[in-house]
Structure formats: C-alpha cells, structure tokens
Structure to design on (270 residues):
C-alpha cells in the first residue's frame, strides 16, 4: 500500500473513533462537512427480518443460504466487513473475538457468528485465511463451524446491507470501502434485535445482547434474571442496570430468605 493510501486509512479510522467511540462502545453518530463521509451510517431497522433466502459462498467455496444458520434456537451475530481491509475491519473483528473469548456464552452451543464480505471481488480463500486467524485467537479448531466467513455477489451483499441499514461505499481511487463499525445481533428467526457499535465490545453487553436476541432460548434462568435486571439504553448504546427491577428482585430474595428462616425457627420450636 502506498503512503497516501495509508494516510487516508488512518484519517478514516480517526473519523470512526469520533463517530463510534472506542472506550465504551457507544455510537453517537455525528455529521461532518465532508458529504462523502456522511454517507457512512447505520439506519437501524430493529424488529425487521433479514432476507434468509440470500445465498453466499462460505470459506470452503460452498454456496449456502443464510436460512441454514437460523435454527429457531440460537441467535446470530452478523458482521459486515471485508477481508483485505487495511485497518478498520481488522480492529472490529479483533474486538469481537476478544469479547467472544471473555463472554461466558459458548459460540456454537449458544449462538453463531456470520461474517459477510462487502467486497464482491474477494474470494473464499481470503475468507478461509481470515477464519483461521480468528479461530486460532479463540483457541478453536480450524474445522469449527461456529463462525462462518462468507463472500458473495454485489447484488446479494447490497440486499443484506440494505436490510440491516448498513450504509457503505467504495472509493475507487483508494481501492477501499468506507463503512460503519457495528455488530448486528439477530434472533434465531433472523429478526434484527440489537446493534452494538465500536471497535471494541464489552463482553457483558455482548452477552446481554445475545440473551435478548435469543428470546429466552439460551442462558436458562440466570439469563432471564440478568435481562430482568438490565435493559438497553438507546442514549448510552449499552445495557444498564434497571434499578426498579433490581430492587424488586432484591425484595423478593429477602422475603424468601426471611420465610425460610421463620419456617426453620418455627420447626425447631415444634
């Protein structure tokens, strides 16, 4: 890569730091005076369904419909990126990998991850190389099927991007794509549940987002209790404690322990 292109990549990265934030993963989208950069955005479509009939090529060169990865039980993390991205995509995928490594939910068992390249010229060989890199970071076998890397046609890529509100564009003179830094969490049926923004992701937010997207199908009783005590704050773009529900739960636990204590005391007196 020539120095000019590298400087442009650094400039784009700085813009994304300002737009999406690194420290807390928040996403306060701002506007700049550059009309080109203002084309980078996420028009959130929470509650909509993605087109599961779309067919992409997996890292092994095999065509697969998206519907194969939505089994009605496990939620899905969807990442739009591209494999030869000079900087931003690598940071997003690394941030996701670190969050997956730290979160208590198990990829494959509890959820799946799909990465789709937004560059229609990329090959399954590039997808396979990227998969090997991230599975190695997770200490997983190269044959692990919990994280799949796809390529596809321009038409299908654009349909998927439009479905989730992912706005990006190609820069011919740089041979690069400008795009948002975001994860899209999908329900087991393919419904858009939540967006997580940034270059790094809080493992707790990722876990709560997946619990929410699963509609109670993963995480068991503990997961449902967590969702009862936390809620997603659209302003903070993160999950925060719901004090009212936490106090209710605390009061209920107190009553249970008090009842057990009094019952034991009464039993001993008898």
């Amino acid at each position: 890569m020539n120095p000019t292109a590298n400087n442009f990549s650094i400039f784009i990265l700085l813009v994304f730091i300002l737009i999406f934030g690194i420290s807390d993963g928040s996403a306060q989208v701002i506007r700049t005076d550059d009309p080109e950069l203002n084309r980078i955005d996420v028009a959130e479509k929470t509650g909509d369904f993605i087109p599961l009939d779309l067919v992409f090529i997996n890292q092994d060169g095999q065509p697969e419909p998206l519907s194969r990865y939505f089994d009605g039980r496990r939620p899905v993390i969807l990442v739009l990126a591209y494999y030869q991205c000079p900087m931003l995509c690598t940071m997003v995928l690394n941030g996701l990998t670190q969050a997956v490594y730290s979160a208590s939910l198990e990829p494959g068992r509890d959820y799946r991850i799909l990465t789709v390249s937004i560059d229609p010229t990329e090959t399954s060989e590039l997808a396979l190389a990227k998969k090997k890199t991230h599975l190695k970071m997770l200490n997983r076998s190269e044959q692990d099927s919990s994280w799949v890397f796809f390529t596809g046609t321009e038409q299908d890529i654009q349909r998927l991007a439009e479905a989730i509100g992912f706005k990006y564009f190609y820069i011919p003179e740089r041979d690069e794509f400008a795009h948002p830094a975001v994860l899209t969490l999908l329900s087991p049926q393919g419904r858009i549940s939540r967006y997580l923004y940034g270059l790094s992701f809080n493992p707790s937010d990722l876990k709560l987002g997946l619990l929410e997207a699963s509609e109670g199908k993963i995480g068991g009783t503990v997961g449902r209790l967590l969702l009862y005590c936390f809620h997603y704050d659209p302003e903070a773009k993160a999950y925060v404690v719901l004090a009212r529900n936490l106090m209710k739960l605390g009061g209920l636990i107190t009553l249970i322990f008090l009842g057990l204590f009094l019952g034991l005391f009464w039993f001993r007196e008898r």
